[in-house]
Amino acid sequence: MDELDPVIHAQARLRIVSALATLDPGESITFPRLLELLDMTAGNLSTHLRKLEDAEYVLVTKAHQGRTPVTYLELSKAGRRAFEDYTDALRALLGAQS
Amino acid sequence: MDDELGAAEALQIVERQQRAVAAQMGSFVPLMTAAWGVAWLLGFGALFANEVAGLPLTIAIPVFVVLLVGAGAVSTYLGFRAGRGIRATRHGRFTSTVYGVTWSFGSVALAAIGGGLGYNGMSGELASHFYPSIFLFFTGIMYILAGAIWPTVFTVVTGGQLVIIAVVSLFIPAPFHLLFLALAGGAGYLVLAGLHRLSQRGSTRG
User: Would you call A28 and B87 a contact, using CB atoms and an 8 Å cutoff?
Assistant: First the structure.
């Protein structure tokens, strides 16, 4: 399993990246909505998002709706490519095993 | 790296999570479909009851209008709520706006076309076939387009069903076309809502 991307290959981050990959390229989602979709704790989501952001797989944009600050999240181009490579690698591994 | 996570399990997580997101994003569809089902069943049911059981038009028409407008309002609210927290691309916003405006523009145009046909001598009996059929046809086409723009097979199938009902209703003599619309549309929508809800069960959690 050495060839699998260690940034993605952890249950919580895999769920986050899988969910973000359902958005069209260029679309983004607010932190609370992503939290709702994933049913995770805010602390857990923040921790794993930071690791994905450090790897430059997730882009974090701060904006304002009126006076309320809003954080938008999306997969970067590198993140989307890494996720595709990761799922391709999984399928290749499973194909090789069967 | 999560050493406990095998390749098969990882792929399952990906697929389950993406199904769960799709189900949550589309969780409003069964409720919206059920609202239209109730509106059609009782709305066209009231118009049919006017013809065969003497329900006064002063009751039948308000019931019909209130139910259909109510279902439209429920749909708009649920659709708007489903998109909360998502920031679309510029292209996505343009598509949504054009699609939304087409509903209003098309509906007004169809009403005007009906008015034009009335001006040119369309009878009341023909109008009672024309209006439901043409609005259904338009709704069906808009559903098919929505299913193509935001890929959802369920929406395409529902749209196709509406177009078929619109065409068939023209070949059923009055007032039984109203009963057909109440049952094929209303009960059909309710069955679709139930099936869609069942299909969502089990995939709402990642």
Answer: yes
Nearest Cα neighbor of B18 from A60, A42, A28, A16 is A16
SS3 label, residue A7 = coil
Instruction: Tell me whether 0.85 is exceeded by the ipTM.
Output: yes
Does the model's pTM come out above 0.80? no
What CATH number does the domain located at A11-91 have?
Answer: 1.10.10.10
What are the chain A neighbours of B1 within 8 Å (beta carbons)? 1, 4, 6, 9-10
Q: How far, in Å, are A97, B31, B66 from residue B184 at the CA level?
A: 50, 18, 20
Contacts of A4 in chain B (CB under 8 A): 1, 7, 10
CB B128 within 8 A of CB B120: no
Return per-residue pLDDT of chain B as tens, 206 residues: 455 789 999 999 999 999 999 888 888 888 988 998 999 999 999 999 999 999 999 999 999 999 989 998 998 899 888 888 999 899 988 998 999 899 889 999 999 999 999 999 999 889 999 998 998 899 899 999 999 998 888 889 889 999 999 999 999 999 999 999 999 988 888 988 888 888 777 565 44
CA distances for B197 relative to B43, B97, B190, angstroms: 24, 28, 11
Q: Where are the alpha helices (DSSP H) in chain B?
A: 7-25, 29-52, 57-82, 90-119, 124-149, 153-169, 176-180, 188-200
